[in-house]
Amino acid sequence: MIIKGKTHVYGDNIDTDRIIPGKYTKTLNLQDLADHVLEDLDPEFRSRVKQGDIIVGGSNFGCGSSREQAPLALKKAGISAVVAQSFARIFFRNAINIGLPVIEVKNHSINMNDEVEADLKNGKVINLSKNEVYEGTQIPEVMVKILNEGGLVPYLKEHKTYS
């Protein structure tokens, strides 16, 4: 799975309340979530984001609560993947479950608006703007399959691996 897009870069410890403020998590309307994604962290994000863009975070991206709305809001807003130095485990799992690709890359020099290509299967991110390749953590094949199906529920329906 290869994903290509322009970047929006943020720092360390971006928690789920910064991704989608708690006051908006009581809705089931995904567009409402997308309309408010990152509004406290980056008020201009919604006017800049384009379909297929990629979020780049520092360490501990997605820390805080276990709310699934955080990766859902990013995905609905058009984000095609999240690259970070490390992820909170629950955010990582929620992202895979809802079909939002994530990849850990410990060392990189990705800047805002760089064009990058994330190769999840091989655990690499290529900064096309700088012609640099960053080694990341290769995710297990089953997770790539889950992402290819659009998330855990579609994967389970397609493969009928549930009872």
From TrEMBL:
Alphabetical list of SUPFAM superfamilies matching this protein: LeuD/IlvD-like
E.C. no: 4.2.1.33
Superkingdom as given in the UniProt entry: Bacteria
Enzyme class: lyase
InterPro entries with a match to the protein in the record: Aconitase/3IPM_dehydase_swvl, AconitaseA/IPMdHydase_ssu_swvl, IPMI_Swivel, LeuD, LeuD_type2/HacB/DmdB
Protein's recorded name: 3-isopropylmalate dehydratase small subunit
Signal peptide annotation: none
Function: Catalyzes the isomerization between 2-isopropylmalate and 3-isopropylmalate, via the formation of 2-isopropylmaleate.
Organism: Cytobacillus stercorigallinarum
Name of the coding gene: leuD
